[in-house]
């Protein structure tokens, strides 16, 4: 009897999850164009904000190295210094904030009145989210610091492995000959990456609700993270399914937008550069 009740409860849970995901799919279909407008807006923001940051970082490295081409050793040496670590954290926090703002706007679009015009819906969703800009940025900064704290031991072990096993020759030597110590280093680093991926995946499932909680409830970033961990306890599989569904939907919209922008760019560039410009 207990087995029958357990099987019935599992089927009930599965039906509820399927109904939830059907509702999500219907919401995406209903709000398709506002989602497109929102995604285009954040692609433009990413181009105007992250590109100068990346260009400034590259210029700093070029000025430091004195060469036209930056070697991997120069990048690693710079990032291990306090100023390099600070720049990396700033870029990571800004990038994650931009992603969080876009996701927050997409969520805000989905819960708004579908009868409004698509552009109006996108503008109102963006206005609502930008009122919480500093809170979202603080939340993302905490997440970046948390990821850094979790990753630091694995990065240190990978660095010790590199120094111990691969310190005698250039990387080209190991790629050409594949000695035993190179295979051992690859195995160790692969295991470290696998373990880190599992740990970060579990952490992501625990904090995935922090952004909706921050937007919908009167919570601080710290409270939103704590509340997300509390509510996700015992719901790992369900949270993983929701994360995968949302990631696939967001990636689909982003890929569509990127393809359209590339197509427009390929059509526009010959007109801007003249008839002699040929794109290959």
- Which structural class fits the helix and strand makeup? mainly alpha
Which residues form runs of ≥5 with pLDDT under 50?
276-280
Radius of gyration: 23 Å
Q: Give me the strand/helix succession.
A: HHHHHHHHHHH
| Mean of residue pLDDT values | 76
- What is the count of helical runs? 11
Q: Roughly how much helix do the residues carry, as a percent range?
A: over 70%
Task: Give the termini distance in whole angstroms.
Answer: 68 Å
Query: What does the largest sheet look like?
Result: none
Q: Which shape, going by the Cα principal axes?
A: globular
Strand elements, count? 0
Report the β-strand fraction as a percent range: under 5%
Task: Pick out its properties.
single chain; mainly alpha; disordered C terminus; 0% strand; globular; 280 residues
What does this structure look like?
- The chain has 280 residues and is mainly alpha-helical.
- Helices cover 85% and strands 0% of the residues.
- Residues 276-280 have low confidence and may be disordered.
List the helices and strands and how they pair.
Blueprint: H1 2-30, H2 32-65, H3 72-79, H4 82-110, H5 118-130, H6 133-165, H7 171-177, H8 180-207, H9 210-216, H10 221-232, H11 236-273
In short:
The protein is mostly helical. It has helices at 2-30, 32-65, 72-79, 82-110, 118-130, 133-165, 171-177, 180-207, 210-216, 221-232, 236-273.
């Amino acid at each position: 009897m207990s087995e029958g009740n357990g099987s019935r409860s599992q089927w009930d849970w599965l039906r509820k999850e399927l109904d939830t995901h059907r509702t999500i799919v219907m919401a995406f279909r209903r709000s398709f164009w506002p989602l497109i407008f929102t995604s285009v807006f954040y692609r433009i923001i990413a181009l105007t904000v992250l590109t100068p940051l990346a260009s400034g970082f590259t210029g700093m490295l070029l000025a430091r190295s004195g060469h036209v081409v930056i070697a991997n050793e120069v990048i690693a040496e710079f990032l291990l210094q306090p100023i390099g670590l600070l720049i990396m954290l700033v870029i990571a926090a800004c990038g994650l904030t931009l992603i969080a703002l876009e996701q927050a706007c997409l969520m805000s679009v989905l819960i708004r009145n579908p009868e409004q015009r698509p552009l109006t819906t996108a503008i109102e969703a963006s206005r609502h989210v930008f009122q919480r800009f500093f809170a979202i940025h603080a939340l993302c900064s905490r997440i970046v610091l948390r990821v850094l704290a979790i990753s630091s031991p694995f990065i240190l072990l990978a660095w010790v492995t590199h120094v111990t096993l691969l310190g005698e020759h250039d990387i080209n030597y190991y790629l050409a000959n594949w000695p035993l110590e190179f295979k051992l280093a690859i195995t160790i680093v692969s295991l470290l990456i696998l373990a880190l991926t599992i740990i970060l995946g579990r952490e992501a499932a625990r904090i995935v609700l922090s952004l909706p909680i921050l937007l919908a409830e009167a919570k601080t970033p710290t409270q939103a993270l704590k509340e997300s961990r509390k509510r996700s306890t015992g719901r790992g599989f369900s949270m993983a399914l929701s994360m995968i569904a949302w990631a696939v939907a967001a990636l689909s919209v982003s890929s569509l937008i990127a393809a359209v922008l590339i197509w427009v760019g390929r059509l526009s560039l010959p007109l801007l550069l003249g008839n002699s410009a040929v794109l290959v």
